[in-house]
């Protein structure tokens, strides 16, 4: 009995004639861990005393945070580097781009092979007729140690593309059309195998775009029997020969689905789900704030050329931000050589390092609450690329929308872009009068102390920069002092009403307001230090958090002692009745404190 493409590949890698539903012991040719999950794979290997099955088949790819700008990612990446040096593993580091694309470029993944990665879009390699699958950290550690894992062979749905798309339709429009017809679960727990005369004309880039969105239809993988373009690409990149695999003519499929592409026009996926497909003609000039071109779906050279075609001689609309991130460094370099980068810069776009970008938190392509973004990515779930709305479209449509200021196709770019409507200036706040006015808050504060006998405690020790995106004061307290050695558990020890006592130059460093607000979050009513960093002092005063300058560390004061502080005189009365002289709060400071902060009426 004939076999489908996935049945042939998995059978060849498990030593038997596998059929749908069989659980096979699958031999894995290529084993990849990313910076996302890679450190946990290393931890699982080391915690369980496991050795590598074959370092030559094992790789790291750092693509979620290609700048190493997030400290947790940087730590994970360095842990992976150290392990790689010890074990002889090749790393595709932060300068290489998206891991799946890099393995294709390097000829590591070729038609007929098997590959696993800690990436849910590892199935992208189906574009060249290879089997790829995303695995969790534990699963990946097993593959690294033994070279194999169990896998349940799925049934295959044959997807036949018929007809001829319109002149402006791209592979992204095709896959959005497929998503719109099949839905988010249309290929659930199946492999898809793509056929048809139009499919035979598609090169690697177009196949990658379609294969990368198989996950968004619930598919295990979307596989394309390799054509001559694909074979030439893989043989050129790999420098080695291989035997491609094709489905048998009498293969049995779970079902066959036909998708008619006749006269297909540019499409978008409406915010919320990739299968919310619609034609652009059905939208009424939806105003956008930002646009993003990149991702494993649409960051390849043909995608960048399409965007450059639209942007040539044009400018990004006023108030709109266009962000472009090539999929790999090789694509970035090719775009530079072809003059595409110059076109992007001339249009006013931001170009980022090669990598995953908008799909990874903290990277180029994120958006904020209320922000409307059009993206060439593969997912637009709420919160995936931030807190705003995300429309999915092709690179050409994204570029056209960026210069138009609203969602539109490249044949509908207006002579003048749509601009944001500017509102009127807010009504000025009432004049406050004398800053010494207040609400009658107490000028005497009594509380239990925590004593940190250290000078020069800077703002990174108080509130580390990895938390700077937090804006809700209620969330800040849990991170107070967690970067100060010996005081990492400070937030769990203090109680509301406790007072911090410390040394000189407290709050040196950056201007971050969170280093003040984290104490307010904990319910601490004031701070006593020998002296303060200049910006920190202003921030505390303006936040209405009383700070007093006094050298309590020159005494034998200890944790748990209760003190009483008079803000007007600067006198600090200790539990034994002795008094320490400090600098009294100024009239301005007291006024701001009593009304609850500088901005309070």
Describe this protein with a few key phrases.
Aconitase, domain 4, single chain, seven-stranded mixed beta sheet, 601 residues, 3 domains, Aconitase, domain 3, alpha/beta, five-stranded parallel beta sheet
Summarize the structure.
This protein has 601 residues and is α/β, with parallel strands linked by helices.
Structural overview:
- Helices cover 28% and strands 17% of the residues.
- The protein folds into three domains: 5-260, Aconitase, domain 3; 267-412, Aconitase, domain 3; 444-594, Aconitase, domain 4, CATH 3.20.19.10.
- Helix 2 packs across helix 5, helix 6 (171-182) packs parallel to helix 7 and helix 10 (301-311) crosses helix 12 (340-347).
- The strands form six sheets. It has a seven-stranded mixed sheet, with helices on one face. A five-stranded parallel sheet has the order 4-3-2-5-6, sandwiched between helices.
Number of strands: 25
Portion of residues in beta strands equals 15-25%
Average pLDDT works out at: 92
Helix percentage range: 25-40%
CATH class call of the largest domain: Alpha Beta
Query: Do you know the CATH topology of the largest domain?
Result: Aconitase, domain 3
Distance between the termini: 82 Å
CATH architecture of the largest domain: 2-Layer Sandwich
Number of domains: 3
Q: What characteristic shape results from the CA principal axes?
A: elongated
Main sheet specs: 7 strands, mixed
Radius of gyration: 30 Å
Tell me the name of the CATH homologous superfamily of the largest domain.
Aconitase, domain 3
Number of distinct helices: 19
The side-by-side strand order for the widest beta sheet comes to 22-21-20-19-23-24-25
Which regions are unreliable across 5 or more consecutive residues at pLDDT < 50? 429-438
Content-based structural category: alpha/beta
């Amino acid at each position: 009995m004939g076999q489908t493409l996935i049945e042939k590949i998995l059978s060849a890698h498990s030593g038997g004639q596998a059929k749908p539903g069989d659980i096979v012991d699958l031999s894995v040719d290529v084993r990849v861990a990313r910076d996302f999950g890679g450190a946990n794979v290393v931890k699982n290997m080391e915690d369980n005393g496991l050795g590598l099955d074959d370092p030559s088949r094992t790789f790291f790819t750092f693509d979620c945070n290609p700048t190493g700008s997030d400290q947790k990612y940087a730590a994970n990446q360095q842990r992976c580097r150290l392990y790689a040096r010890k074990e002889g593993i090749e790393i595709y580091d932060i300068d290489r781009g998206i891991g799946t694309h890099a393995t294709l470029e390097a000829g590591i993944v070729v038609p007929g092979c098997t590959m696993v990665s800690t990436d849910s879009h590892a199935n992208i390699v189906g574009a060249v007729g290879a089997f790829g699958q995303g695995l969790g950290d534990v699963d990946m550690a097993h593959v690294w140690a033994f070279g194999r894992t169990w896998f349940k062979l799925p049934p295959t749905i044959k997807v036949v593309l018929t007809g001829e798309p319109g002149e402006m339709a791209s592979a992204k429009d095709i896959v959005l059309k497929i998503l719109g017809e099949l839905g988010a679960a249309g290929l659930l727990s199946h492999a898809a195998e793509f056929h048809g005369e139009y499919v035979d004309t598609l090169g690697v880039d177009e196949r990658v775009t379609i294969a990368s969105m198989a996950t968004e239809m619930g598919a295990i993988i979307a596989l394309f029997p390799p054509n001559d373009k694909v074979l030439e690409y893989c043989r050129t990149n790999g420098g080695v020969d291989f035997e491609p695999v094709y489905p048998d003519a009498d293969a049995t499929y779970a079902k066959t689905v036909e998708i008619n592409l006749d006269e297909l026009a540019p499409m978008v996926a409406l915010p919320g789900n990739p299968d919310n497909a619609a034609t652009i003609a059905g939208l009424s000039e939806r105003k956008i704030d930002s646009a993003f071109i990149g991702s494993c779906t649409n960051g390849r050279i043909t995608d960048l050329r399409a965007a450059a075609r639209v942007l040539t001689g044009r400018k990004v609309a006023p108030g709109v931000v266009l962000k472009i991130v090539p999929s790999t460094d090789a694509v970035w370099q090719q775009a530079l050589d072809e003059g595409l980068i110059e076109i992007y810069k001339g249009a006013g776009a931001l170009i980022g390092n090669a990598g995953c970008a908008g799909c990874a938190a903290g990277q180029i392509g994120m958006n904020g609450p209320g922000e409307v973004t059009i993206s060439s990515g593969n997912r637009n779930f709420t919160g995936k690329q931030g807190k705003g709305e995300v429309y999915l479209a092709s690179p050409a449509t994204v570029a056209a929308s960026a210069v138009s200021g609203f969602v539109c196709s490249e044949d509908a770019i207006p002579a003048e872009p749509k601009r944001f409507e500017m509102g009127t200036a807010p009504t000025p706040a009432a004049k406050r009068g004398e800053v010494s006015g207040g609400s009658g808050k107490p000028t005497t504060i009594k509380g239990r102390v925590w004593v940190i006998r250290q000078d020069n405690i800077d703002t990174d020790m108080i509130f580390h920069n990895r938390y700077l995106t937090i804006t809700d004061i209620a969330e800040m307290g849990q991170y107070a002092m967690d970067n100060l050695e010996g005081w990492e558990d400070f937030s769990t020890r203090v109680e509301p009403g406790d007072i911090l006592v410390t040394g000189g130059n407290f709050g040196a460093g950056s201007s971050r307001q969170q280093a003040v607000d984290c104490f307010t979050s904990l319910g601490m009513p004031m701070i006593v230090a020998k002296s303060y960093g200049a910006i920190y002092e202003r921030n505390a005063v303006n936040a209405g958090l009383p700070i007093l300058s006094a050298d309590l560390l020159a005494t034998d004061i200890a944790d748990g002692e209760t003190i009483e502080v008079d803000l007007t005189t600067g006198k600090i009365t200790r539990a034994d009745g002795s008094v320490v002289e400090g600098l009294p709060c100024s009239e301005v400071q007291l006024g701001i404190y009593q009304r609850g902060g500088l901005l309070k009426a």
